[in-house]
User: Which sequence fits this backbone?
């Protein structure tokens, strides 16, 4: 899809202001919020365009596969592939391939496979295959199940390893040869290695203690930023002099449908567009200023149960679109959001716990201890996509808006607690 | 950009009480193990030493290696017999020393 | 705890230098030997007695970038008899050194907490030195989780 919108620039804002499109009403929050139609920049993008993937995130060509904005993946097979003879793969090579984390996390992400990978923290999304060699499965069935399991089970969450070209036929022969050697229970070294006995992670840290959660430092930074005057002499404080009072529930009502843009706006995009239209500052989504401001605005509403508009026709339609997107298979690994966080929720992919949608929206933006960084919900969406080998969209993509609205609708009643702290 | 260290300790204590002190220093703790986009090693830059003293007497210190996580956190205890001032210091690889003080009243 | 003589530890330490941390297993071995070397330097080759030390680490760390570690040593902490230094080394990081805590009688307790980086599942070794020149040691394994989606 080509983007026709104009880039956000200070020129555009200056023109808007000069044209009298927006006049800063000095004084109280009541003034600022008197009109339903809040000042916002209705043209241009709210994030860097064209979107450039973060340095350090893997770069792959995923153009042949679905994204949340585009359909491109090859269709599922209609018939099982015929084998020309019995499988003569190399089981030793197969044992290495099933544990190769450069191939979409490896088979061990979802299956225990006897001694493969040292039986170190396998997952349990799929069945334990440690005794598959005793199951009397035919070579053809085993081959096709690995090549593209959809031929036997259209509802499977298993990636089409052969169908999407992640493993070639020779490699799948090796994998099948290895599977046929598996005839005894997994030799777990510790109980923690067994995904059926591994205790689910429990988050016990006090996420609002700045000595526990460096994400809290954003709250201090945001308060400085709140009063920092822009080039044209305005700050957030110009209109919102009592943010603690005026924003004590607002973030819990977001995201929401915005008719002027025909899309769902979350807190982050709102900050970008509203700031541009008022102070003239450019705080694009997923920049430091935007992140700290989003943390602060959520923080001010902490303890408020999430309650968004789920009843207006526009919201209902957006939620339905978000729901459909959450079930769309995307990327080389061919996962839908609902594959991992629905069908396979509360299970292990390798050593990582798959959470369910409820409980995922109340702590964003969140501090990620593994990265020592604050991530907002859109960045989390982006990373999930890249991880399953799909191209991510720009943070302000309308598809993410619909998806965010659907996700948050499943979190209604959950109390905000931002910034969260997660691994 | 030097950020302020974070401290958490009681303002008051009883004589002879063992109090808990939590400290955290905002710092990237660049390990010297990471490589940049061009494959060049990013030079090490860490907080390599922390000290805590009370009324000029050493209470606790730590010799810190790159295996301590970013934003180095140290929690320890102190036995306080009198009112006074804790002084904390963090030494950066670049030679700079950041200090912070906190008073406590002992009854 | 292995009771290595200083000379033996230095010898394996020197051998370990030629290994680079590329493959995990190779790296793990090198670091374990270097860790023993660090311990030998700390104890001056003296044997350390198992015990008196409690190591708190999560059994399974969700990531290796910031793993909470608490070390406490059972000691009177009087002017006459206290734990002066506690060495923490890693057997599975690129370098063995993690942190050394230095206590005084004013510490009240020989107990400290920090957050550490762990390259992978490994042993953490802790050695404590008392003001009387005694050494105590303990070790604990911590599993660092393996991500689901891979690289």
Assistant:
């Amino acid at each position: 899809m080509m983007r026709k919108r104009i880039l956000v620039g200070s020129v555009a804002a200056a023109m808007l202001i000069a044209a009298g499109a927006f006049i800063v009403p000095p004084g109280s929050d009541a003034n600022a919020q008197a009109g339903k139609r809040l000042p916002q920049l209705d043209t241009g993008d709210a994030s860097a365009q064209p979107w450039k993937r973060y340095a350090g995130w893997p770069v792959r060509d995923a153009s042949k596969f679905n994204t949340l904005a585009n359909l491109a993946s090859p269709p599922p097979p209609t018939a099982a592939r015929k084998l020309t003879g019995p499988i003569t793969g190399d089981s030793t090579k197969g044992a290495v391939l099933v544990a190769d984390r450069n191939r979409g996390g490896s088979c061990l992400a979802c299956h225990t496979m006897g001694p493969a990978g040292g039986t170190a923290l396998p997952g349990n999304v799929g069945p334990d295959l440690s005794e598959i060699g005793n199951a009397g499965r035919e070579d053809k069935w085993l081959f096709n199940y690995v090549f593209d399991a959809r031929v036997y089970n259209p509802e499977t969450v298993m990636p089409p390893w052969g169908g999407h070209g992640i493993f070639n036929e020779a490699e799948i022969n090796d994998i099948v040869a290895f599977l046929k050697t598996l005839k005894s229970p997994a030799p777990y070294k510790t109980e923690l290695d067994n995904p059926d006995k591994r205790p689910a992670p429990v988050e016990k840290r006090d996420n609002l203690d700045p000595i526990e959660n460096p994400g809290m430092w954003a709250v201090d930074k945001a308060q400085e930023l709140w009063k920092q005057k822009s080039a044209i002499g305005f700050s957030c404080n110009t209109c919102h002099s009592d943010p603690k009072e005026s924003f004590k529930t607002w973030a819990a009502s977001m995201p929401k449908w915005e008719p002027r843009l025909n899309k769902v706006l979350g807190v982050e995009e709102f900050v970008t567009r509203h700031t541009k239209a008022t102070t003239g500052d450019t705080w694009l989504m997923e920049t430091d200023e935007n992140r700290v401001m989003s943390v602060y605005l959520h923080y001010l509403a902490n303890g408020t149960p999430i309650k968004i508009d789920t009843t207006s026709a526009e919201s209902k339609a957006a939620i339905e679109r978000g729901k459909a997107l959450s079930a769309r298979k995307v990327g080389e690994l061919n996962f839908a959001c609902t594959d991992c966080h629905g069908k396979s929720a509360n299970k292990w992919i390798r050593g990582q716990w798959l959470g369910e949608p409820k409980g995922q929206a109340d702590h964003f933006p969140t501090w990620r201890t593994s990265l020592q960084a604050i991530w907002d919900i859109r960045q989390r969406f982006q990373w999930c996509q890249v991880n399953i080998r799909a191209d991510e969209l720009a943070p302000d993509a309308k598809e993410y808006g619909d998806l965010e609205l659907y996700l948050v609708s499943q979190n209604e009643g959950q109390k905000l607690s931002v910034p969260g702290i997660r691994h | 950009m030097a950020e302020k260290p974070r401290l958490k300790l009681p303002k008051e204590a009883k004589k002879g009480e063992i109090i808990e002190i939590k400290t955290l220093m905002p710092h990237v703790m660049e390990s010297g193990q990471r490589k940049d986009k061009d494959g060049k090693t990013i030079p090490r830059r860490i907080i390599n030493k922390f000290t805590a003293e009370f009324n000029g007497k050493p209470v606790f210190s730590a010799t810190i290696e790159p295996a301590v996580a970013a934003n180095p956190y140290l929690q320890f205890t102190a036995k306080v017999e009198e009112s006074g001032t804790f002084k904390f210091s963090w030494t950066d690889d670049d030679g700079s020393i950041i200090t912070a003080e906190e008073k406590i009243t002992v009854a | 705890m292995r009771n290595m003589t200083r000379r033996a530890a230095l010898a394996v330490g020197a051998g370990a230098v030629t290994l680079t941390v590329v493959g995990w297993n190779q790296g793990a071995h090198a670091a374990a030997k270097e860790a023993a070397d660090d311990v030998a330097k700390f104890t001056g080759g003296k044997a350390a007695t198992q015990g008196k030390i409690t190591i708190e680490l999560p059994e399974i760390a969700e990531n290796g970038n910031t793993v909470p570690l608490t070390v406490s040593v059972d000691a009177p902490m009087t002017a006459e008899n206290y734990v002066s230094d506690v060495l923490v080394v890693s057997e599975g990081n690129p370098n063995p050194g993690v942190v050394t805590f230095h206590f005084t009688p004013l510490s009240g307790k020989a107990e400290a907490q920090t957050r550490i980086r762990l390259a992978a599942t490994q042993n953490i070794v802790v050695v404590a030195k008392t003001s009387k020149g005694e050494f105590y040691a303990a070790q604990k394994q911590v599993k660092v989780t393996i991500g689901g989606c891979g690289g």
